[in-house]
Amino acid sequence: MRKLLTYLAAMVAFMTISLGLSLLLGVDAIAQYDPEVRLARQLVADQGLFFGLAENNINGMAVSRDQGADPNVSLSRLGLKPETVFGKDLAILKQPFNSASWPILTWAVYLGRKDAVNLLLRAGARVNSPDEYGATALHWAAQTGRYDVATVLLNNGASCNATDFKGATAKDWAMMSSQYDLVRLIDGRSCRNQPIGDEDQDGVPDDRDQCPGTPLGAPVDERGCWIVAYAAFFDFDKSVIKSEFLPHIQQAARVLANNPGVNVRVVGHTDYVGTDAYNYGLGLRRAQAVIRELVRNGVSPSRLAEESRGESEPIETNATRAGRARNRRVEIHVNQQVAITGVQ
Fold first, then answer.
1. Structure pTM?
2. How far apart are CA 100 and CA 23, in angstroms?
3. What are residue 330's DSSP bridge partners?
4. What is d(CA 51, CA 91) in angstroms, rounded to the nearest whole number?
5. Residues 127-150: pLDDT tens digits?
6. What whole-number distance in Å separates Cα of residue 38 and Cα of residue 30?
């Protein structure tokens, strides 16, 4: 039960807020009341999706899905540690992998939860999304010998051509793990002769990718863009990153460390509340806050350029509170590729 404490605490906090608002405004007004309430509800749904997976509770996952949980969420984005959710006994937690950066689909694959994999894919999980090392869910299905799960992934568009940051495909992972049934399965799909159609291997096809050239291993949204900080990472109208979300920025630093030839622009965005000048400044301050954390985690300042777009580039409507919350974000965009010598 201990591993449910974080989720239960978030649920209690959310229910307390909701109860108070319902008494004052009525239940129908809660959803339209405040962006922070909406964000709290989103966090509860996303955490519920992970805890449902940990308990192998497919019905609980379905409830969280219906509450709007993000099928591409990661633990680092939620400010959670893997041992908090899954306990300390998983073998992967003893390995040098940052599993907190995994999309939840990769966790479902690693645990061999076929029903959960199906649920996440139907809910919109991106089947080729990589972790910070460039490995996809199919890599992990191959490494762990999850034949049935690998079949589901392949039937839903998983690419056998995707490589990790060392250039290894899922078939290579299967061979290194002596999972020869997986080798035969992948070979049977003639994957090596199929074009991937995803040049930067971020899980978003090139014809829909609005941010081409994303570094290998960077988590992206449905546009193919790398959002490094979300509205929940900051208090309202503030530019200091909350401590529980610092691991998400640390993950970004590791992605940049694994891609030493990439220089980037860190770009702050806001919603349309406030003047153009104020929003430009707020976006810039939040971009600067992200840069400070990246530098603190070993990224050279010479690789980072700050920028603000203010309210000028919304990705959702500003007419709703949920849309405005999505528009308040910090993105990382590739600035240029530089030649690196002496890197193995």
1. 0.61
2. 38
3. 229, 268
4. 18
5. 988 888 889 999 999 999 999 999
6. 9
